[in-house]
Amino acid sequence: xxxxxxxxxxxxxxxxxxxxxxxxxxxxxxxxxxxxxxxxxxxxxxxxxxxxxxxxxxxxxxxxxxxxxxxxxxxxxxxxxxxxxxxxxxxxxxxxxxxxxxxxxxxxxxxxxxxxxxxxxxxxxxxxxxxxxxxxxxxxxxxxxxxxxxxxxxxxxxxxxxxxxxxxxxxxxxxxxxxxxxxxxxxxxxxxxxxxxxxxxxxxxxxxxxxxxxxxxxxxxxxxxxxxxxxxxxxxxxxxxxxxxxxxxxxxxxxxxxxxxxxxxxxxxxxxxxxxxxxxxxxxxxxxxxxxxxxxxxxxxxxxxxxxxxxxxxxxxxxxxxxxxxxxxxxxxxxxxxxxxxxxxxxxxxxxxxxxxxxxxxxxxxxxxxxxxxxxxxxxxxxxxxxxxxxxxxxxxxxxxxxxxxxxxxxxxxxxxxxxxxx
Amino acid sequence: xxxxxxxxxxxxxxxxxxxxxxxxxxxxxxxxxxxxxxxxxxxxxxxxxxxxxxxxxxxxxxxxxxxxxxxxxxxxxxxxxxxxxxxxxxxxxxxxxxxxxxxxxxxxxxxxxxxxxxxxxxxxxxxxxxxxxxxxxxxxxxxxxxxxxxxxxxxxxxxxxxxxxxxxxxxxxxxxxxxxxxxxxxxxxxxxxxxxxxxxxxxxxxxxxxxxxxxxxxxxxxxxxxxxxxxxxxxxxxxxxxxxxxxxxxxxxxxxxxxxxxxxxxxxxxxxxxxxxxxxxxxxxxxxxxxxxxxxxxxxxxxxxxxxxxxxxxxxxxxxxxxxxxxxxxxxxxxxxxxx
Lengths: 423, 340
Prior knowledge:
The complex is a heterodimer of chains A (about 425) and B (about 350). Chain A is mainly α. Chain A contains 14 helices and seven strands. Chain A has helices at about 10-20, 25-30, 40-45, 45-80, 110-145, 150-160, 165-180, 210-240, 245-265, 290-315, 320-325, 330-360, 375-385, 390-420, and strands at about 195, 200-205, 205-210, 270, 275, 280, 285-290. In chain A, strands 1-2-7 form a three-stranded antiparallel β-sheet. Chain A has a two-stranded antiparallel ribbon with strand order 3-4. In chain A, strands 5-6 form a two-stranded antiparallel sheet. In chain A, helix 5 crosses helix 10, helix 5 runs antiparallel to helix 13 (about 375-385) and helix 10 crosses helix 12. Chain B is of the alpha/beta class. Helices cover about 40% and strands about 15% of the residues of chain B. Chain B is globular and about 60 Å long. Classes of the chains: A mainly alpha (about 425), B alpha/beta (about 350).
């Protein structure tokens, strides 16, 4: 006989039953004793079934709600004789868009208008996140400054921006630009061909001529060179303790060859300067006020939140770390860069992700100042001219969902690269 | 298990929808509510504005009041909802308003695709351009490279794109939500040109501090037949709007005014006048209204001509000429079907 080892601890009656039925009987059955007949009341009274009951009721209610919503929409669509179709996306859009990063005319289809809008949204979100991070980190660090005036000023800034709706900041920035800057015909041409007007900022733009390709290759090569130098300097520091002025040498590696080749190749990159012709300045680049207003307002607003994240991240690092670093003889800026910030980043990044998402989603306020983002093109003019509310809004929601998930995906990868490595 | 649940959910939902979809007879709904809901624009001088007491006045609200008077005998039984170029169709389609009386152009896609029913045209308009006199521009063909303020979500946006494309010119569109915003941008010189319906331009210019510094260019680049509209599928309701407007235009043609309507009804021997004022026939009953529907509508704000003169005519600050909107027998194209 092959007795189960645990059998020693069985109560006596179970032991007897095993003897009667043989050792192959399952232990679980032994403990429940007689199989209790299932009664309906057990769905509520019996702990084993109660949670299933509640879950099934909840999911049934949820599906009822969803089903009601869907069939309501279907019924109302049918009643108004509306169809659900995305065919309108291939019809000509028939409207013009002022800021377009790709080829687009009023004869292009609606989907291309949507793409133009998407690119405008992405440019705004990308530049906005960069500016917000730079401002936010600087302000957050300054808020912790021992200088009374600086830290108070930053507190005022943070509380001011955080507690006023971002739409008001956007409108304020836009009104300030159109009311305070001169019209093109009165506008001064500032140094370097930069012209501020109440319609936007005209800036000199590069003109790529023959040989500029080589210059780009040289520039990329020097970037690689600078990176390699950085690695070499690090190994050298690790081996000998000697610290090189890495920043300046890197700058020289990047800038000098480009300047040298620029003159060797006979100045292949020209500048097109804006000139007053007719109603507006022509030539050069043009940054519209709507973009500037949004960019500035969104990044300053989000910077206030990021500053608080940075401050809390830094303050979460125990003071002992700073003291230990000082006692090792590290000066304050190195203490910040090498000891405090790398640890603080772990705390800062997760909330930073949600600030990036907020900025991206807030960019949909663009239509308030006439910036043609995707909400303005697909969710604005296209919706209005075609009357396809349901389709365009679903597409819009899908777009913001995908972009938000992508941003948090990328940031999560970065987060795991700086997160504490448990070994 | 799951599929059964789904079937159950959908089944219950199908029952539930019966209550939520808007009922088809707008007139019954309106009568039950005791007032009509009318969508107007957010504000165009002369056409739709609020007076000192906060009541909506103007060429468009006057039509809403006439319809309300036709239904209830009370021109005040209207609730006005200001709508922008973007929100107006959603407001009408969702039942938030019962009719739209705001400078809305009748087009094929709005009629057929968006499923709206247009009443006869109550203002024949066309898209024009306004510029500063100091620019020295005399024709729209000189506008190559200009920055143009335009109300987004309107037909003018599409006409503008077509016109500049056809004439091989470039422009910089500045999309704006409302007339007030456009006015502010234009006056701040953030755009060289403001384009919308010529009537709207004249009305907007009239409200400027120095109207003479701005000119309307001679080109009218589109046809903009502005008409009141309601939802597809309720012919009775559409008929009420249509024939109220026709009654106002016919009243002008027959010389019936707010002041003399009662007198004409009692004493006029002309059959057309007697039919119009309900002294003969039962047109009102056939519409589902009282037989005094038309005389109430006329007494609400006067006939078409009176409304025009009061709010936007040459004697007002807006100063619009009748032009195309004269009666057909006075050199215009306003031609209302007879009550017969």
